[in-house]
Amino acid sequence: PNWKDPRQMEWLRAIVDKHEHIRATEKGIRIRCSHLEGSDVLGYQCGIYNERPQLCADFNCVSWAKVSNNLTQYNRVLEKLGIE
């Protein structure tokens, strides 16, 4: 969206407020897959892993973490994958 257009920001806020898997943060919007099962305490896992869409199968979480410019997140991904 055009972040300077107040109408688009209102539209975006309405979407964020209506969906439990979308959350506004200081850095923007965080979208969590609706198929994730678990919690922040226990960790998450994919609830449809064996039947997941091709988009999910092709997703490279290491690349995502690297381009996010968040070194902490990048290191967490590497740790979870056993690539340190």
Give the percentage of residues in beta strands: 15-25%
What is the tally of helical segments?
Answer: 4
Helical content band: 40-55%
Give the strand line-up of the largest sheet. Answer: 1-2
- Which spans of ≥5 residues are poorly predicted at pLDDT below 50? none
- What gross morphology would you assign? globular
Rounded to the nearest angstrom, the distance between the terminal CA atoms is 37 Å
Biggest sheet details: 2 strands, antiparallel
Gyration radius over CA: 16 Å
Q: What sequence of helices (H) and strands (E) makes up the elements? A: HEEEEHHH
Count the beta strands.
4
Mean pLDDT: 79
How would you describe the overall organization of this protein?
By secondary structure, the protein is α+β, with helices and mostly antiparallel strands. 43% of the residues lie in helices and 19% in strands. It has helices at residues 6-18, 54-58, 61-67, 71-81; strands spanning 22-25, 28-31, 36-39, 43-46. The strands form two sheets. A two-stranded antiparallel ribbon has the order 1-2. Helix 3 (61-67) packs antiparallel against helix 4 (71-81). The longest helix is centred in the first third of the chain and has 13 residues, at 6-18. It starts with 5 loop residues before the first helix and ends with a helix. The model has no long low-confidence stretch (mean pLDDT 79).
Task: Sum this structure up briefly.
This protein has helices at 6-18, 54-58, 61-67, 71-81, and strands at 22-25, 28-31, 36-39, 43-46.
